[in-house]
Amino acid sequence: MRGMTTQGRAPSTSSRPDPPRVWHAPTAESHARFRALLEQPFVPLCAVDVRASLTDVNDALCALLGLSAEELIGRHLRELTHADDTGTADLALMDVLSGGRLASQAERILRHREGAPVSVQVSIAGVRDEDGAVTGATAFLIDMTALRESERRTSEQAEFLAAVGARATDLALIGDDQGRITYASPSVAHVLGYDPARIPGVLGWDFVHPDDVEATRTAYMDVVRGGGTSCFEFRVRLPDGSWRWVEETATNLLDTAVHGVVCNLRDIQARIDAEQALVASEARYRAIADTAEEGIWVVAPDGITSYANARMAQILGLDLEAVYAAAPGALLDAAQASVLAQRVEERVQRGVERYEVVYLHPDGTPRQLAVTASPLHTPEGTVLGSLGMVSDVTAARAVEEEMRRAALHDSLTGLPNRALALDRLEHALSREGQQVAVLFIDLDHFKLVNDSRGHRTGDQLLVAVAKRLVAAARSHDTVARFGGDEFVVICEDVDVERAQEIANDLLASLAGRFDIDEARVDVRASIGLALSPDATADDLLRYADTAMYSAKAAGRGRVRLFDRALAEQAEERYALAAQLRVALEQDELSVHYQPVVEMKTGRVVGVEALARWKHPTEGDISPNRFVPVAELTGLSPELDRWVLRRALADAGQLRGDGTLPPDAYIAVNLSARNLGDGDLEETIAEAAARAGFAAEHVVLEITETAIMDDAVLAVDLLGRLRARGFQVAIDDFGTGYSSLAYLSRLPITCLKVDRSFVAGIVADQDSLAIVASIVDLARTIGVTVVAEGVETEEQARLLRKLGCATAQGWLWSAATPMHVARASRQWRDGFPMPPSGAASTPSRRREAIVVSSEHGLHVLIEMHRQGASLATIAAALNQDGFRAPTGARWHRTSVARAVSSLAYPALSVD
């Protein structure tokens, strides 16, 4: 299959064309490995070319669709798609083939030979040649039938558990530290007859018999204050006014995620009735005891069983005869048997007591048995022995333990969570005479895994990473997951050298590839390291976090120790953030404005608002310094709102006094961190309305990188703003080579050419070609273009010749305060434009680029008209055997030059 056996490489980031290379055919060994993968029989696989036509398939895919390889190869994927398919997978495939993504994942409904729909999940990976150009794609298909069946079983299991909870004979309540009920389990309906929805918010004492309130409240509050677990009995009022005895086991979970006291209530009315009946009548005692829900075991003073009911035998998993034959202690281990014998012997002196024992059931599982034991005697005072009421509380204790664990452990990896890690860190710091290290670990580029392979693969990768970190850490170190792709390792009794060794061991443990769902995933991490003493737990975590971000800034994949320099930077950053907060509150910032000029006339068509800060003692503080601080410390939403309101108000005044034309727009930058701000949309609309600006005269600028970082969130917000009529511009455009197919789906109205390309158009042919392509691209998708950073007349002449309608830069005006703009006649009358003489093109390559049919001219023109990206065009030309006019393989830079030469032939010569 053409292109599929070439080892993929990242596209070159250079803007210069690559030197000619000699292409080497794949070795027999690599071809064999690929064929072995393709022909393995269990996973359906296929390969397509850049036009989405099948070039190779394996037997598993043929079996899945009921078609032979001869019937499949050469057909376009659309021919195999079922009518019910949504088309989502087509978009995902085009993103990969156009070079927009390395890989993607989607669901597709294919059509079986007999016409039946076949639902599959498709994992698509681009195939690139040695120059990084896309030559096609491979796809792994997973039949979703088993997954749907699994989902059905999971749903049934959830319904089963809900039904069991609703029909349980015990009930659970959760109360706060004042005894107010915050949760009641569904079983309260049939156990006590109350509607569980009406219980929360009511004080527990409201249901307790007046004679039992004092003791019950005291026992409950003892648990609240002292922690642990306590068991007590009281009478509960039923809806009909009658009373019923219950036993409550209260467990303090206030300091966990449960935030309450978990109370398990059991109906013990039968037991109470049985105890009273035992005194009144032996016959009545047996009738009740034999039908009790609890196990009843009467042991004589000599340790011999005098009575056991059927429920007791059932709990123990023995025949009733075996229960009578065995002494209670014989069923327990030696340690528990000794304690039990002493309890029986001292029953009269001990009185009523409650305890739990562990019993090994005949089925091999340990059972937790709750025992309420009391002395048994006749009305005359003759001691008959010890009465034990026994319940199997294994399930209840398991639920309590799971609740404790869920409150303190990460549900995905099973590692300690943030709360437990912080608790262990505080305990470690409280021990004198040792140094404690905190390692803050963040996976590098983990978002790419989620975006390219899906969140399921991302979750599996996090689990695998957790296992490697645990294996690499020392046995007594704490490895915790803090959330997302962040982990923390707490190391006790270490010095700085040992801590750095451990950190490097952790990095090395992640160096090997991870096998996830038959795919190999690479991951690296950045680690920040901070050590005690003289730091609280919160300080150590903050220091380690700061060091981790420093490691990322230094190139990722490394360890950074928190030192004095980082401490000073952190203090400076937080001090600057505090001062910025005050400056925003006291309205100490200002906004400067740079005009956007129409290239033909020099008329001001709009202005860009830029925040400025003149510190009372430090003087001017650059936006490159305070804007990142605002984003890091969470001040960026407030900063953006301040600039929006001030800029729109100022622009309204500039319009009112004639400085700005009535149809001029105001452009305001939005921080990438604010795309999730739920109030941003209304803030923009409110500020525009207050300043008297129509929505179409407000341009909201956001960088291309910010959109790509969270495309779903960005497109959603920007789409809503466009629906209101606001204009949207992509700032610093040009480095991404976004394709027309992708840009056409974005809700944008303007592309702002990055100043780095504008600066080079006079001296560099590649910069000129890229700017020409951007202008042509904007014309194709119907949006305007603004060139940033224009400083010379020669740059302006070239841009005008390219067809760029508007620009901004120091050639006309720097960003100026509002009063300077008012004093300038040029803002009102327009700026003088350079003469429209011949614009000299870059001297490095003055000859015209002549592209003929032998170079694939027809392919280039057709794909350019369809909106394919430069990289996709280059891949198609190379795949069809065409070469650039220089004789080298086509590259996106040479395609850009050819496009500019075809569209603007006058620019290719002096």
Q: What does this protein look like?
A:
The structure is a single chain. Strand 30 (784-787), helix 29 and strand 31 (806-807) form a beta-alpha-beta unit. Helix 16 runs antiparallel to helix 17, helix 22 packs parallel to helix 23 and helix 32 (857-865) runs antiparallel to helix 33. The strands form six sheets. This protein has an eight-stranded mixed barrel. Residues 1-27, 843-847 and 904-910 have low confidence and may be disordered. It is built from 34 helices and 31 strands. The two termini are 45 Å apart. It is elongated. The relative contact order is 0.06. The protein is an alpha+beta fold.
Give the oligomeric state of the chains in this entry, treating copies of one chain as homo and distinct chains as hetero: single chain
Helix % is 40-55%
Report the strand count. 31
Strand content: 15-25%
Overall pLDDT confidence: 82
Q: Count the helices. How many?
A: 34
Distance between the termini: 45 Å
**What's the gyration radius in Å?**
38 Å
How would a textbook summarize the main sheet?
8 strands, mixed, barrel
Structural class call reads alpha+beta
List the uncertain runs.
1-27, 843-847, 904-910
- Order of strands, main sheet, comes to 23-24-26-27-28-29-30-31
Shape: elongated
Task: Write a brief structural summary.
The chain has 34 helices and 31 strands. With 910 residues, it is α+β, with helices and mostly antiparallel strands.
